[in-house]
Structure formats: structure tokens, C-alpha cells
Amino acid sequence: MSDQQGLFDFADTPDWEHAAAEDIQVAEVVFNLPLEKPYTYSIPDEFRERLRPGMRIKTSLGRGNRRVVGYCVNVRQLEDPSRRLKPIEEVLDAVPLLSVSMLELTRWIGQQYLCGWGQVLESVIPAGVRRKSGTRLVQSYQLAEEAESLIAVRRLPAKQQAVVDALRKSTAPIPVARLCELADCGPGPINGLRTKGIINPIKVRSEIQGETLEGTETVADLVLNDQQQAALDTIVAALESGQHSTMLLHGATGSGKTEVYIRAIREVVSYGRQAIVLVPEISLTPQTIRRFRSRFGSVAVLHSHMSDAERHWQWQLIARGEVEVIVGARSAVFAPTPHLGLVVIDEEHEPTFKQDNTPRYHAREVARFRCAQENVPLLLGSATPTLESWLRATRNHDTLISMPDRVAELPLPPVLIVDTRNDPRINKGASIGRALYTGILKALKDKGQVILFLNLRGYSPTVWCRSCGTGVKCPDCDITLTWHRDRQEAVCHSCDYHIPAPEKCPSCDSAAIRYIGTGTQRLEEEVNALFAEARVLRMDSDSMKKPGSHDIALEQFRQGEIDILLGTQMIAKGLDFPNVTLVGVIDADTMLNQPDMRAAERTFQLIAQVAGRTGRSSRGGRVLVQTTNPDDPSVRYASEHDFLGFASHELHQRKDSGAPPFSCVARVIFRGLSEPAVHETASSVADKLRKTAREHDPQVRVLGAAPAPITRLRGYWRFHLQIAAPTHERVKTIWLRVEDTLKLPDGVEMAVDVDPINSR
Ligand code: ADP
Ligand code: ZN
Ligand code: ZN
Questions:
Q1: Is residue 178 included in any domain, yes or no?
Q2: How far is the CA of 467 from the centre of ligand 2 (A)?
Q3: Fewer Cβ in 10 A, N or C end of the chain?
């Protein structure tokens, strides 16, 4: 991996090699490979004027002659004129795809997350932008250089003359179809002129336009309460300082955070700058988007259903500074705004801000780097911040802004913990216990709406054989199948493997198959049976497959056409419905029992967020949490709306065990089709790491190698190890020492995840 230079045995000596060294410019190029350092190439004369950092080029790589696309990341003086370099063979872009500061940002991501600079570029620049989607090459014609002299010696037929006249009037080549229109002719006269050499064909790129991004600006500003005004004052002071800082807006659910973002962005727009707003998932935030659209003149929403052409079109508009506000999921942090003024990350605790394939970046950390680079503030908002962000704020690395109260003096809803261990209904196999049942009855009688939260989809989470005592598992993954009753199938939620619901156990042939546990589908059935009059809607990724279906469902709920909304995480986020008077958490244990260092944190977040969906009007509201762990601290603190108490408790635990945020962790995952090969590779890498750590930095700990919690996934065996140290630098130093010496056997792949947030 150390052979980073263009090539050494290149035979032809380019002319310029004899020129004075200071005249010679070379290009540094990165490819879509896990390498950090760029390769150096010579720049042939024809490209010398044109080539700039941020453009893609084509050249050959390594000792073969395979031509590949790379990104020019720097143009600099050649230091050693005796060095022989391969030339760049083609320049693919007319203008750079990225600014110099965005190049710097992508380089930092490669270093921070231990992957190649070129891999980052490949992921950050949308495919539609690279392919110039929505533009196409159109056959066009222009007058030949010798056209006038050729015409002078002959008389042209009328139609041909009309074509020539049209071209004379135009400064640019004219596409065939348009030329036929202008000269009122078919292709005949054009071909005739071409044969005579009077006109030349040329391909020209034309742009297809996407939808416009006009906002409506129809809604006026609200009068901020004191708490919101104080928060806004702090943010505006940060904006005016022209300095970078990170602010954590810790505001209760319904404290009016979004309104504060909007006002801060209004300030940014008044300076002629742009703001980026990152939200956890675009399809789940239609309300937020509508709010932004109704308050600004131009809002670009970057969502995943966009075609390549639309994406390209938006990218161009943003790059030209024609968009005031960009709202999108994590990748919107790369929006090419020319004058960034502020980045807002709403619900900063959401795990979707971390990408789970290469480059495995966290949008919050990328935003932090980008904002520091461009000297603008970063604003993080949440009712339940991550312990990482909380620790930084309480240590004064970041500024803490608190909005503890809901707007309009609404109280946070009372949360009741219901111990289901002795519940007569639950013991008979129901999911809705006695207290929740009476609660729903009462809410419906009072014409209130109900939200029921359960984070397991499907009908029954486990298909179980009573004879051999094992769950029926996916043959490719280490996961028991979930019964989807509506499809009459058993489905793997990891790879979507599915079989007709088995009547016999696939391993022992016994007919003693049972379906255990409750998923959202079974809950829906139970709710329908118990509350026959109520109108029920289920929201999970099975029922909401079509783009836009969330929006329709939520609108129905808002209009009061639905009485009970039940679903997964999808319904826990950001929704603001004043008429919801009861929220039920069906089973807090499913979150608590995850084999994950963050299980307690996630449980707290989910209960607090779900609770945030009720009590949003004078009608009030309450929350019932069913659990068999009523004394668990995360459940307790959530029921008391006590984030500070939870954070201090959990931070103590983390500190005692040396876990993040008190240490930095990199997880290395190995996978392959042969279990022994994967196991052996992971173990030998772990041993090497341990040895290197002992020699160079004994405080660095290496855990594993061990089978990953999901040991088989999509047919691959998976093993992992973890490197932990007090700082990122120290993790990286040990890793890079070992990585440079690694040679993976064929069939074993490796991925590094810095600051992992799941350990599956
Ligand atoms: P959060 O993002 O903190 O959950 P929102 O910004 O969504 O809170 O505000 C919750 C509700 O309160 C929304 O319906 C919003 O329109 C309303 N709201 C926010 N600020 C004010 C205010 N200053 N006066 C009146 N209503 C407000
Ligand atoms: Zn069996
Ligand atoms: Zn599977």
C-alpha cells in the first residue's frame, strides 16, 4: 500500500521534462481506493490551462494500462524534475465539481474515518452530478470555417440557404431539431450542406430543468417567548461574531426549537448567506419541511426519491447560491453552498446521522469541521442529546442553550410506568395490559387520539420450534425469522429472505412450530379486536413502502380521520398533534435488552421522544410505559423527564467502564464466506494490534476478535474487534502501524468503523 507514486517504469519521456523545474506543474490525483495519499501525474500541455483541483480525470493506474477515473485534488510545482511521471490522459469536467474547501473537508473525512480520500469523494458527489444527469449530448450544427468561401462560388437551394441563414444569426451551434424548425425543412437540406462541407456536426450538452424550489413565505413569524428569545439572542451573537462555535440547544419536546431555528436562519439569509438544516429522515419530517417552505423564499429539500437529473439540477442551483435553505438527511451536509452561514442539526441524537458504509462518517462531526473551516456556527438541537454532545457542552467546549419548558406553559405529560409482570391480560398473551386498555378506552371516549409505539414490525418476532427449542433462522443470517401474517410468510428482517410460513420445523421436521411475541401487525389485530369502533392505522416500513405514504397517513391522523396510530420508530419522531391525549409504549424491554453499549441511552431517548408526542395542547395528555423492568434507571429517568439525572447517571457508568464518550473506539469488522478464514484473520489482526499497542502505547486497549453479535449476515460470517484509547489520534496511530503491514487473504474483507454507534 506504500507505492503511492504514479509510476516508475514509464518509458516515453515527455518533452517538458527538459524544461526548468519551476515551470513544471503536476497534478495530485486520488482514486476510489482505500488509500490516503494521492498519486502524482504529469499534466500534458493541452490540459495545462484547464485542469483544476476538484475535476475528474482519466488516466492509467499502477503498472497495467487499465484506464480509470480519478479526482484531481491538487496542482502543484514538481519538486524533483528527474522523476518520471505518467500523464493525465483526459480531463472529464469543464468546471471543478467541488470547491477547494470541500476538497479539504473530504480529505479530513478520509483521515478521521480511516478510509481513502477518493472513496469519500466518490460517495460525497452525487452520481447524478458526476454523470451530469439530466443533460444530454444533442446533435447540432455550426457553419464550417470555410463556409463563406464555399457559398460564394455557388447558389444554394432555398431550403439550404435558410439553414445557412439561421446558423449565421446564431453565435452557438444549433441542435438539429431546432434548425429544422428555424429553416422550416426536414433533414435533407442539412445533410446536403454537410456533404458539401459548408456545415459541421458537433455534439452539444443541453440541460434539462428540474422543478423550481420556490418557497411560499405565507406564514408570519410567531412572537417568541422569553426562553426562545434568549436562545435566539445567543445564536445571533454567534452569527455576528463571524467565528465558529458549536451550540447545543437542549430544549424539551414542544419547547419551540424549530421556531428558533427558523428565526436564526432568517438572520443568516438576511446576510445573503445560506443555511443547511439536517433532519434524521426526510420522509418522516413532512411537517418540518412544510414549515420551512412556508417561511422562506427558496428551500431545497434533498430526499432519497430524487432522480439523478433532479439531484444534479438542485446541486447546480445550490452551487450558484440560488437557494436560501437546504433541508436534507445527513448527506446534505455536503451541499455546495457558496456562502454558508449556519448548519442546524435537528434531533442530533438520531443514529441516522452516522453513515453505516464507507465513508462511515457522522454528519455532526463533518458539520463541525465544515463550520470551523468556514467560520460559521453549528447549532445542534435535541430534547435528548447524545452523551457525546452533552459532555462537550457541560465541559464548555460547546455552548449550552437550555429551553426546559414547553411553549404556552404546557406541562410535560405525566408518564406512568406499568409493571407488566403480574398483569392478567399480558399473562394471557395480550400485548395491551389492563392499565393501557382502560387508558385507551377513556381517551377514545373523550374523543382524544392515541399513539401506540412498538419497535418490532411484522406479526410475531420469533418463529420458534418447541421440539428442538430453537428459533427458525434465516439460512444466510444469524437472525430468527419474523412471521408476517398478511403475507403468510416468515421473513428475515436483515436480508428479506422469505419462505411460506413453515408448518414444520426446517431442522427437526416437528410440527410444534409456535409464533412468539408481538410485532406491529399482531398489535394492529389486537387493537382492532379490542376497540372495534376505532379507526386504526399502522405505520411501519411494511405499510409505508410507497414514497409519500407517510405524509398521507400523517395528514389523515391530523385531520382526525384516525383514532389510533400505531407503529415503530417512525411515529416517535418530531410529530406535533395537539389532539393526542394518550401515548402507550407497548414494551420498553425490547429496547433495553439490545446487546449494545447504548441500550440504556436509546431506551431513554425513545421513551422521552414518544412521550413528547402528547400533551401538546390544553387538552393535556399522558403516557403509559409497559415494562418488566420498572426500576431500570433509563425507564425511571425518562418517566420523570429528567434528562440531567439520566445523563449524570449514565456518564458515571460510562466513565467507570472507560466507554465513549470517555474514550474513542474504532471497530474493525471482518467478513467472508469461510468461517475459519474470517475468524483466523480477525484473530491475527487483533494479536498484531495488541503487540503493537504493548510496544508503542500500552494504554490502547484491543478487545476481541470475537464473533459479531450478528455472526452471519447475508451469507457472510462476521467477526469484529475493537480498539479503544483516550483519543482518536492514539487509536489511529496504532491502527495505521498495523494496517500498513496487513495482507488480507482472498475472500476476507475488512471495514473500519471509527466511533461506531451500532455493534451489530
Ligand atoms: P420542538 O421543535 O421543540 O418540538 P416546535 O418548534 O415544533 O417545538 O413547537 C411546538 C409547537 O409550538 C408548534 O406547533 C409551534 O408552532 C408552536 N410554537 C412554537 N413557538 C411558539 C411561540 N413562540 N408562540 C406560540 N406557539 C409556538
Ligand atoms: Zn425443530
Ligand atoms: Zn437473512
A1: yes
A2: 5
A3: N
